[in-house]
Specification:
alpha/beta, Rossmann fold, 5-stranded parallel beta sheet, 7 helices, 48% helix, 11% strand
Length: 161
């Protein structure tokens, strides 16, 4: 059976060290153990790296990059194809220009044929309006049907520590 391919959006990685959200942090840490054992194929983008680099708390930033160093993942650089898809997401009214980096994350996941984006950005990404809009673009442009989910959706019974 083919492994599920996931795209890690910045908020998911940040939740590995989100002490004020213990349930989300716990779920991400359980998922991370699965990633270390290569249960899923993983994609991370230059957009995610750039956003993590802008973390003001240097200790947290270093910890998050240490987490990334502990897993295998495909790295994708921002390019003109990604930007064109992000612009299309905005032109179709799925998200606004204020959420351009979120559009870039979606585009990265689409062009790398990910099955889902792992995110805790409920305002812009993990909501029914965005998910339906992204699935419409996926279908119209011939991409994999892309879901946007929190980590808990990828933790199956028996995976919890």
């Amino acid at each position: 059976m083919k492994k599920i391919k996931i795209y890690l959006e910045t908020s998911a990685i940040s939740n590995l060290e989100q002490l004020d959200l213990p349930e989300q942090m716990s779920d991400m840490r359980v998922l991370w153990e699965l990633l270390k054992h290569e249960k899923y194929d993983v994609v991370v983008s230059s957009i995610t790296h750039k956003e993590l680099e802008s973390t003001k708390d240097t200790e947290k930033r270093d910890l998050l990059f240490d987490y990334l160093d502990s897993i295998d993942y495909e790295f994708i650089e921002r390019n003109s194809e990604i930007e064109a898809i992000a612009d299309d997401i905005i032109s179709k009214g799925i998200l606004t220009k204020n959420s351009y980096s979120d559009c870039l994350h979606i585009a990265c996941a689409l062009i790398t044929n990910c099955d889902c984006i792992v995110s805790y950005n409920f305002r812009h990404l993990v909501n029914i309006r965005t998910i339906k809009g992204v699935q419409a673009i996926s279908m119209l442009q011939g991409y994999v049907n892309l879901n946007i989910v929190p980590a808990k959706a990828l933790i199956t019974e028996g995976d919890e520590q």
